[in-house]
User: Fold this.
Amino acid sequence: MADSKTAPSFSELLATVVTEPGKLEQAFSRFHNYSIGNQLLALIECFRRGIEPGPIATYAGWQALGRQVRKGEKAIELCMPITCKRTVKDETTGDESPATFTRFAFKPRWFVLAQTDGVDYVAPAPPTWDKARALAALDITEEAFASMNGNSQGYAVGRRVAISPVAERPFPTLVHELAHVILGHTTNGARLEDGAVISYAAAEVEAESVALLVSGSLGQDGLEYCRGYVQHYLRGAAIDERTAQRIFKAADTILRAGRVDQVEELPVAA
Ligand SMILES: [Zn+2]
Assistant:
């Protein structure tokens, strides 16, 4: 999270989600069309500044909804991708060619409902998430559950997942197994992209944190179980910043893959 002096890190955001019931639910009931990291940033900023948490939009966004940002109101900062152009020189030929790349920066461009006046605000419908659409977009197949382990709720192998027909929490379990695939836990014997091997416990923390974020974002019940599961495998340890970024990115990937109503892309830095 370069460029930021005041915004909390993703590891801090995740620690809040894992240990403080209610925060996630509050953030997600209001900011559907933002990345998960930004939804939490917006909520924390509201608490910090004593603003009633509510939907967020840009100045122009509120105008389009028939509302006006009140004079003197200070915008809240969210993390946004910025496309930069630069000239790249080929070392051998000396040829110069234009290249674009994306970096992430915090920009104060958003206002909360409570900072605006105007016509009554009508909340949008909660986001809908379609499993078939998500599986296709993520290139993951769901297969019939074939585990003989009576305690198993689901599993992931390669790019295949299976959920027990008697799973106690089918939705978080599905997200948990999708997360194992997305995070690279099912390739090369649970190795990450950079070759580091992570422990079973670390993989469980990552997958269930993603299940917590996605389930919370879609208004699902049973988040307490997710929190308990993550805390069990953390055993009092903290989630480091790099891992937290991977978790937020995977959660956003799964959410976007199944969202029927794509609205505004504001990915978190990762
Ligand atoms: Zn697992």
The chain has nine helices and eight strands.
